[in-house]
Amino acid sequence: MSPKDLKAALRKERLALRDAMPLEVRIEASLSMADHAGDVIALDPGHVVSGFWPIRSEADIRPLMVRLKDRGARLCLPVIIDKNTILFRELVDGVAVVQTGFGTTGPGADAPEIDPDIMLVPLSAFDSVGHRIGYGAGYYDRAIDRLRRKGHMPRLIGIAFDCQEVASVPAEPHDVALDAVLTESGFRHFRAE
User: Fold this and answer.
1) Alpha-carbon gap, residue 23 to 109, rounded angstroms
2) CB-CB neighbours of 69 under 10 Å
């Protein structure tokens, strides 16, 4: 089986497990994530943190984002621009969010584009060394590559439930590894901050 086919099989399997979690369990797990990481993610006042509004059965990290904002972080959300590109727009109090494509929600076109220092990254599966499987479209890989080519090196924190961990993710040259992962069981570093 090719790495691409193996990733597709792991993606399907782990998303099915995530989808099978009862809503109440996902809510409790999401709140646990805020408790585990709200005060321990290293950031300085003014650091830009990209989060996301949950779609489908993703963890709801909005409570975590509020905790990080209370510690001085500026927040942004990814916005799908076209079939290949996501940008990050600032999320500020009092400004409405809108549908931004593929079921996602984010600030409208009038919101400033900003580059995140810390990225909270949704994913399908991850392993114990920080390799991840996204949703298959490569948006985050391309966005991270674009930021790095500009000299910006955001810390990457995967957001997943415990059931999304796999024994091993087949890593390909274009894949970007995580610095840490946050699940309902805790905050785990793969690389030094």
Assistant:
1) 32
2) 16
* Burial status of residue 93 (CB atoms within 10 A of its CB: 0-12, 13-18, 19 or more): exposed
- Convert the pLDDT of each residue in 134-179 to its tens digit: 998 889 999 999 999 999 999 999 999 999 999 999 988 878 899 9
3-state secondary structure (DSSP) of residue 14: helix
Tell which residue, 143, 134, 147, has the closest CA to residue 82: 143
CA end-to-end span of the chain = 35
Question: What would the pLDDT profile of 54-77 be if each residue is shown by its tens digit?
Answer: 999 999 999 999 999 999 999 999
Is the model's pTM score more than 0.90?
yes
Strands (E), the chain: 48-50, 74-80, 86-91, 97-101, 104-107, 118-122, 125-126, 132-133, 155-159, 180-183, 186-189
Strand partners, 87: 79
Query: How far is the C-alpha of 58 from the C-alpha of 61, rounded, in Å?
Result: 9
Beta-strand relationship, 132-133 and 74-80: unpaired
